[in-house]
Amino acid sequence: MEHKKIIIIGAGIAGIALARHLDKRQIPFEVIDSGENYSSRIAAGLINPMVFRRMAKSWRVDEFLPYANEFYMEATKDWGQTYFHVLPIRRAFAHQQEVDFWIKKQAFTEYQTYLKPLNEADLNNQDVINTFGTGEVLNSGYVSTKILLDDAFTWLKNTNRLRLEKIQYADIDPENSSYKGELFSKIIFCEGYHGLENPWFNYLPLQATKGETLTITSDTISRTESLNRKCFILPVQNNVYRIGATYSWDNPTLHTTPEAREELIELAKQLTKSEFEVIDQSAGIRPTVLDRRPLMGKHPNFDSLYIFNGLGTKGYLMAPLLAHEMTDYMLDEKLLDKEIDIQRYQKRLL
Predict the structure, then answer these.
(1) pTM to 2 decimals?
(2) With bands split at pLDDT 50, 70 and 90, how would you rate the model's confidence at 350?
(3) What is the rounded distance in angstroms from the CA atom of residue 274 to the CA atom of residue 219?
(4) Which of 25, 41, 163, 330 could disulfide-link to 37, CB 3.0 to 4.6 Å?
């Protein structure tokens, strides 16, 4: 069966993951991107299976993590570079309650994949500033975001499936399923925070959440684990680390601020005794959602318009499997999980 082309708007991690799944299904597609990505490319790409505030597993992590691992390994085979790096997280406990939660959860079989049982060395760790000890999170790590997206762009360019241009909504005719007069079968908006301006999906509660990070150098911070409490310190290469991240809601500005710089430096100094030097600062805008679940599905009035957005701070963990589910939904009419389907917001249209 011959398929008309599918158009993907946006080449962040959501759009790239979707493109790879369509490619695997041999579905013709084209990715349209402005070349100005302000979230996926700047993100640290942390893969953290835990939510420390509640000392609970991240939503659907038992499904997301193995699928993401396989997805990035396949990209490595295809494009020749290692993108997913396994790295434990050293959590410095913020209070005694966190210690108690950890001890309780580490006894459960479902948590033994992620929480290393505490020992005296953890509780008396001298490499991290702490009062209540530390714990080690397993099966965590990070994705080399810029390298991954650069290689994805090269792949799309070499296969003539990338169009670098800023989308104009006036060029889309959903009634006739066309873009600039060219017919398509579906158009999927993977726009990140730009989705706030989308005239068909602007009823959804998407938020623009600004985040700033620092790049630092240090000769003494641990290179074998990522440190975490109120911020993260992530080793990325040699003596280079990322510190992040700040949160500023409904603030779609991309300039860096001295306030964020000082905030991150102070948080890092509360976590490590090591000296470090700031060498760069960057800002990005995350697409987040009020209920902390992605926005996925088909427009209620136009069968050719879809959205795959709102992956927030865990996009590199969730995007691979969610892109698979989105592909099955579009091509095979498999139902989406009610937690991610935009039908949960249908009342907003009334």
Answers:
(1) 0.95
(2) low
(3) 8
(4) 41
